Amino acid sequence: MGLSPTQLGMSARVYAEYETPPQSRSLSDIVRQAGITADLAAVEEHLSARTASRSRLLADAGAHIIAAGGKRLRAALVVLAARLGAYEAARARRPAIAMELLHAASLVHDDLVDNAGQRRGRVTVHERWDKDVALMLGDYFFALAASELAAEPDPRIIRFYANAAQTLVEGELSPVTTLEPLETALAQYFTKIGSKTAVLFETACKAGIAVAGGDEAQIAALGGYGYDLGLAFQIVDDVLDFIGDEAALGKPAGNDLREGTLTLPLIYAVAQSNHPLLREVARTARPDPGRVPQLVAVVVGAGGAVRAMDEARALVSRAAAHLASFPPSPARDALATIGDFVLERQQ
């Protein structure tokens, strides 16, 4: 199902006010132009091999998750960051695989906690099998990620990943609980998405440059780039929940609202409008699932999505600034272009 006429109007308005119209740019184009297609194909092949298990249930559930694919953006960040230094394909591959396994583990557990029925248009693990399988699969993927890094001679790499895993868990228990005052809501929101999404982008970039012999200043710069990019990525994801194509997203529009998840477009809409529906949501911090379509329209009409996209654009600009210390190269160009991809993506 495509966008409804109302959603098409909302989407056009957001992009028009944001002054960045949707483009046809894709991550696969960026990867191809950077010359890392073969690197990511190797990562994909090894991911399938690594998720095999003596347990038939874990093997089948793991194959289900890996087959769902995804953009493999985090693996691409590892490889591109490594290409800014002394690149060795075999060595960069390990943290790239570990990054995708860590991400997959977080998604399985996140779906379980949220009781989500679909992910990327596919039924979630706990729905297809059961909650015990989902819990064990997430744990198994966490273990596989650590195992992938066991042979890494640089101890900083495993520390990066251990910190990311710890932060992911802490972030899952740090929800946004209020929409007012604005300062409190923003602090909670950025803590949440920093722990949920940005830390993985940060870790991917830090690990990539570290395995390529990067010094502490370079690691800090790439970490800053990844963190800001990750914040922007999650903000755009949250905006798409209001204006995106349900078929492309693999979940219904307003899904976050139905689940009671408070995101940046809603936070900004509440700050900018006295609409009765927004006042009610601000008072209770619990969107009524039965009024989600109306609330989606009110949030977009109040400018919540536009202001959130402005925030994402500022973060992408800040992320690009972290790349200035690296000499021009196809990898640096690709990292800069990924910022555009994040802002322009439709799913």
Helices and strands in order, then pairings?
Blueprint: H1 5-18, H2 27-34, H3 37-50, H4 56-67, H5 73-82, H6 89-114, E1 118-119, E2 122-123, H7 125-128, H8 131-148, H9 155-172, H10 182-211, H11 216-243, H12 246-249, H13 255-258, H14 264-272, H15 276-284, H16 292-301, H17 304-321, H18 330-344
Antiparallel strand pairs: 1-2
Helix pairs in contact: 1-17, 2-18, 3-6, 4-8, 5-6, 5-10, 6-8, 6-9, 6-10, 9-10, 10-11, 10-14, 11-17, 14-16, 14-17, 17-18
Structure commentary:
The protein is mainly alpha-helical. It has a single domain, classed as Farnesyl Diphosphate Synthase. Helix content is 72%, strand content 1%. The chain has a two-stranded antiparallel ribbon with strand order 1-2. It is globular.
Describe the structure concisely for a colleague:
The chain is mostly helical and 347 residues long. It contains 18 helices and two strands. A two-stranded antiparallel ribbon has the order 1-2.
Total discrete domains? 1
CATH architecture: Orthogonal Bundle
* Spatial extent as radius of gyration: 20 Å
Which percent range describes the beta-strand content?
under 5%
Largest sheet: 2 strands, antiparallel
Low-confidence stretches: 1-13, 15-24
CATH homologous superfamily title: Farnesyl Diphosphate Synthase
CATH topology: Farnesyl Diphosphate Synthase
Number of helices: 18
**Overall mean pLDDT score?**
88
List keywords for this structure.
Farnesyl Diphosphate Synthase, globular, two-stranded antiparallel sheet, mainly alpha, 347 residues
